[in-house]
Amino acid sequence: MTPVVLTRLRSPEARQTKSDILIANYMERNLAEVPFETAKSIAERVGVSQMTVGRFLRRLGYSGLEDLKQDLREGSARTAWDVRGGFDRLKEDAREGRLLAQLIQQQVDNLSRMYDITTAPEWQQAIEAIVAAEEVYVAAYQNVRGVAQYFAAQLSYARPRVQFVDGLNGTYAELLDGSVDNRLLILADVRRFASKAQPLARAAREAGVKVVLISDDACTFADECADIPIIMPGARGPLWDGAVTMVAVFDLLVANLIVALGDSVNARVDRLTALQDRFGDFED
After folding, report:
1. Burial class for 63, CB neighbours closer than 10 Å (0-12, 13-18, 19+)
2. Of 73, 108, 161, 222, which one is least surrounded by beta carbons within 10 A?
3. Which part of the chain has CATH 1.10.10.10?
């Protein structure tokens, strides 16, 4: 499946010390999980230092873990929805209740990491950027598009001038034309990454637009494409990528923003409620 990585992990260069053997064996046994690991998490699981993991990767010819992840991506065409060859086992697990229990536990584990995300410096930077921006644009693609549209709609209740951009005009002119100085792009993209995401982020930054990137821990371009990266746990499920963690990130951003904006949110909600009543979109 990933012959280049496996060949390197099984080579003599990868097994020169006891620590090397521990790291190589761990990676080989958990190859499907490596794209979602960090050097720190591997070090903690194996019981070595992060520096030892870095030296091991360099001995294999990688400048860092991201280089190894790139080999894994190029060596496998697996998408987030690929369950080929495993249905018999999955059906048995589902009948016995193990499958849903595993999925629930994975979601709980991911959500348990939300505290670390929301207390990181990037989180407060994102809140301050959303508060300060004159215009906020939200973009996403493929299977996270709907979640991002939901977020844009919720965000528009808390502050004005929020717009979801889909790029169907072929230009993203509404975002990039420079009509106002203080613009913010909130871009959501997770593996399997959309081809338009990186070009849009780069074009936005070139146009003076600040970029908040919501992505997962398989992302290798956050530092070069985003001013403020917010990185979530990546999908590890046996079936497909779920949206639970991303929805949690978006909901908490809105909740935190409401607190940051204070009483101005009440006035905006009252105004929107009056408009909803006028046009009759909701039942009494």
Report:
1. exposed
2. 108
3. 3-75
Q: How far apart are CA 248 and CA 243, in angstroms?
A: 9
Where in the sequence of the chain do the CATH 3.40.50.10490 domains occur? 119-279
pLDDT band at 86 (very low <50, low <70, confident <90, very high): low
Separation of alpha carbons 198 and 176, rounded Å? 15
Given this structure, which CATH class describes domain 119-279? alpha beta
Is-contact 280 182, C-beta < 8 A?
A: no
pTM of the complete model: 0.69
